[in-house]
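sanity check this fold:
=====
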Amino acid sequence: MTAVQSTAGTIASPVKADPYADRQSLEFRFRERRFQRIRQMIQSILDKTGHCSIIDLGGTETYWLIGEEFIRRNRQRLSITVVNTEPEDIRDRELFSFIQGSATAPDLGRGRRFDLVHSNSVIEHVGSWQEMQRFAENARRLAPRYYIQTPNYWFPYEPHFRFPGFQYLPEAVRARLIMRWSLGFFRRIDSRAEADDIIAHHQLLSARNMRVLFPDAEVSYEKAFGLNKSILAVRDTPTA
């Protein structure tokens, strides 16, 4: 999910080049390292059932390049459904399918059941706390296992705007800053309404928030430079 995509369906804004397209970028390397846990979960499912169906909330086909070798080796035993409000032209239709829609929609995947729900850096973009609750309800409903990652509110470097302590400023101040300067993923925003919308859909969460949203998960941290960079909510034990 890029910095302008939102499962709540906000209007996209001009952004800088996607750093995840660069395999040498710091963001790509972090995600590649993070995939080790995801691979373990997928492999466990494959060992037990022979096939793993994944629904990726707010994801993209390109994201899965972080596990390209593992996925290529197991592609006949995997199916990945990508959900995003932004349209996507799926290239590998044997492996991927696409649902254009909101990951917070109450009828998402109705009548379907997956082996694993995956989401990387999405829940902080859906908007209000109520929308985050809907997102979490879908994640907990759609599969017996889930893996949800989000940047940590208490990590001092805000990852979307690349501005230390940006998330601690009042929302009105943050909106004015992105109207004045090009920050992080974003070129300078001209419209105050658009700036307010962007800020409203970039709300970082704490570990306490994640424990409330995912009470049946193991909540842990991903570290960088000795600090808690990201939060992981993982349910790796099948539920009834």
In short: Confidence is low (pLDDT under 50) at residues 1-13. The first strand starts at residue 52 and ends at 57. The two ends are 30 Å apart (CA to CA).
